[in-house]
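Sample pair:
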Amino acid sequence: MNFTYDFLEVDGKIRMIEFLDSLSIRGRAKVLATMDKLIELKNNNIPLKDKLSKHIEDGIFELRVYLEDNILRCLYFYEVNQKIIFTHGFIKKTQKLPRKEIDNAKELRSKYYRRISK
């Protein structure tokens, strides 16, 4: 079975799509191409470098996308059957990953699991 990805929908919102819509066409293309690269590497069992993706904490990972002077971050977690679920994205403006973004990804993941367990 191959890895795939999807965007998390919570409360009728897909925050990853909202993030993508906020970007330029070039930015959107770069994020989607980087997601495809992540999937290709995972499917070919090639180790990911920290420059592309990194475990943050408690099963939350970040995908790093470099675009001109900005660093875009897309947070995700792994679901069963080799599915990657992207929670949301943001433009990183400081050296450190904002705590609120990590907590946001964890909360979105919790809502996802509560919804699918019903």
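The chain has a mean pLDDT of 93.
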